[in-house]
Design goal:
The chain has five helices and three strands, in the order βααβαααβ. By secondary structure, it is of the alpha+beta class. The protein is elongated, with a radius of gyration of 17 Å. The termini are close together.
Length: about 130
């Protein structure tokens, strides 16, 4: 429960905005759509402002933040990529051969400092 004049802050990603380079476009799209579907709503971030307004919070502010990373290990750790990749393979969303090619491509790019991960994170605040 939020006290009168209390401030609520929420931070949520939007999985539909995530990209990785390198990678076959179709593989990357299938992967992130699969990740998005693992949540009740993987696009909550973009909806937070509306949710706050629907609850009559005042002074609602939204700060969309670009998350850009170039370190494969950090991305795998932060985004829990191993778990998602295993799940995508086990559920038949992406064949193991396709995953192996993609992971090798990402590792080679990372070694050459040519790896990119990006997506949107939304920070929203409002006051009761």
């Amino acid at each position: 429960m939020l006290r009168p004049s209390g401030r609520l802050v929420a931070i949520e990603p939007d999985w539909d905005t995530f990209i990785i380079d390198p990678g076959d476009g179709e593989t990357v799209r299938k992967f992130f759509h699969f990740c998005n579907d693992q949540f009740p709503d993987g696009s909550t971030g973009r909806k937070l402002r509306r949710y706050f307004a629907e609850r009559n919070l005042r002074n609602v502010t939204i700060h969309p933040e670009s998350l850009v990373m170039h370190d494969l290990e950090s991305v795998f750790r932060l985004m829990n990529m191993e778990q998602f990749i295993s799940s995508a393979t086990e559920n038949g969303v992406i064949p193991q051969e396709e995953i192996d090619l993609w992971q090798n491509e990402m590792k080679r790019a990372d070694e050459k400092n040519q790896f990119t991960f990006a997506g949107m994170i939304f920070v929203v605040s409002g006051q009761k």
